[in-house]
Every structure is written in structure tokens, then in C-alpha cells.
Amino acid sequence: MGLSTRKKNILQAVVTDYIKSAQPVGSRTIARRYKIGLSPATIRNEMADLEESGYLVQPHTSAGRIPSQKGYRYYVDELMETSDLDEEEKAEIKRAFQYKRLQEVEEIILHTSRLLSLLTNYTSLILGPQLKKSAFKKLQIMPLDNQRALLVVVTDTGFVKNNVINLPQSLSVSELNRIVSYLNRRLEGLTIEQITSKLISDLRRDLYYHVKFLEETFTLLEDSLAEDERRVFLGGTTNILNQPEFGDIGKVKALLSLFEQHSLLATLLARPVAGVEGVVIKIGKENVLEEVQECSLVLASYSLGKEVMGTVGILGPTRMNYARTVAVVQQVVDQLGKL
Predict the structure, then answer these.
(1) Residues 125 and 235 placed together within one structural domain of the fold
(2) pTM beyond cutoff 0.90
């Protein structure tokens, strides 16, 4: 059985007021602020029914009510009004992605994470592209002195792996350039997962006379092939800790510890949106990790151009401003797709 119009109006008022104030909401506050045409006594009775049905909870005997997870879910699914950013904010987001320096994917993601946290005042989490799906872009060997050089492998999605290698004294600069050009020709356009062990063996054979010198290059490529962890980019990590819900030092420590564990964060970001289009909202215990089960997560897949890269997420208290957060995420994801 669904909620009556009266109960819907009261639930919406409680959620709206609690999002703004972070304080339990009483019947007199609703009667005074929301003009729903009911007396405080009637509102109090309806709130008691909503509490009994699991939509509201009373944190203290003498306090008003606050939304439960069930209440937030009903609000998000049934009552939340679609929000839109004003034209000035839309223009600000558009300008933020017009910087000429934003060339590499990693730069774009870092910039996006900062922008999201600034616009929402929550913590942003962005799941980067899989390294194995990235295409080899170029290999560079830059001499540091007569004996050492910096070896750099770059992919099209901005991943950079580097290592300092030893140079044989007999190797001339022109010969070094020929070797680098050969490797770039052979590897150009291949994804990391296409650079197989067999291909690396073939390269070893073709460059037999330089195998000792190039061994560290091949090892770097093999390490890239074995690497499967996806990087998570964070923005505004202290924003969520500034929320009144996180005054407990135990909660703070648990979240800070989680922010250092990128493999867990990748699981959190990847799983909820598998096969789902559009913005997804995970509330409280709907999140798979215990550390964020008193939080809400707003998620959406993002593309750069036509290629899906990963997931954008905003982590905040269950008391987050859902309508605005959804609007910000959607606007930013749309802009990323136009790059």
C-alpha cells in the first residue's frame, strides 16, 4: 500500500528540512515552514505513522524525526523534484573543460575530481580507465647522463610508467633512436593486453644484439601487462569529514583508511553501475562496503568522446542534497562526453 498524499507531503518536508539543517524535524517546524495546510497535532500523528512504517526515525525521545534509509529511498524514487543548475553554473562547468592544457586523460580526470568536489562540497571519486584497455602511445628513452637514461611508456589514456635504465657505453645516440623508433612502430595502437608475452619474445629475438640493454624495457612492458588495478582519483576528501554526521573519530578513521585502498574503492565504484545507464544513487546499506554504509553514493558512467572510460562518484552523508548532486554529476558527465 502506497503513502497518502498527506504523508508524502510530510515526508518530503522532513527530508528537505533535514538536508538543510542536519537537525531532527518537529511537527511545528513543518507546519510553520511548509504551508501544507495541517495543524501541528495532525502532522505529529502522521509522522508517528511514518515512523511506524519505517520511513522516519526518532533519534531521541524528546527530538523530532529524521529520515530513515527507507525514507530517503522513497524520497529519491518518488518525491525528489528534478533539479537543474542555473545558466551561470553550467557556463562555469563548460569553461572548466576548455583549458588547453587538459590534453592527457589523467589530467582531465584529476581536474574533474576537483571540480566535482568544489561544486557539491562532498567527496568525489572517479574510477579511471583500465590499463589493459589502454592503447600503447609511445616509448621514450631520455638520456640522463653518459650511463643512464629515463625509460618512459605512455598510453593513450594518460598512464605513464617509467624507470631509470643503464645505457651501454658502445650505444650511440642514433642507434638508440633507431631502437626506440622500431619499438614504437611495432607497438603503436596495440592495447596493453595485446602486448602479449609472445610479442615481447619476438621483440627480444628481433633485437637480439641489444637484449641486455633492453631487458628493463621488456620488463616494464611485462609489468604493465600483469597490472590490473584501476586507479581511483579522489577530490575533496575532507569535505565529507566536515559533515556533522562524522564527528565520531571511529567513522573518520574508517573513511580515511578506505580512501587509501584503491582496490576497494574501485569495487565500490564499478559494481553498482554495471549494465545500468544514467545516474544511479546508492543509499546507506545499499553500498557494498561497511565503511560507507552511513553514506550515499551518486554514480554515473563517463565517456571521453565516444569511449566509456570509467565511473564518476560523489560520496556524501545520507543527508546529501540528492537533487543538486545528480544535476552536477549529469552536467559534468555530459561535458566529458563532448571532449
Answers:
(1) yes
(2) no
Give Cβ neighbours of residue 76 (< 8 Å, ≥ 6 apart). 281, 283, 322
Per-residue pLDDT tens digits for 256-279: 888 888 888 888 887 544 455 789
CATH code for the domain in which residue 74 is found: 1.10.10.10
> Could you tell me which of 212, 225, 204, 112 has the C-alpha nearest to residue 161?
225
Span 163-190, mean pLDDT? 80
Question: Within this chain, do residues 240 and 328 fall inside the same structural domain, yes or no?
Answer: yes
The verdict on 107 and 54 lying in the same domain is no
Same domain for 149 and 105, yes or no, is no
Do 179 and 145 reside in the same domain of the chain? yes
Mind listing the pLDDT tens digit for each residue in 116-143?
999 999 999 998 876 666 677 777 877 7
Domain residue limits at 322: 87-129+230-337
* Residues 294 and 246 reside in one and the same domain: yes
Do 58 and 150 share a domain, yes or no?
A: no
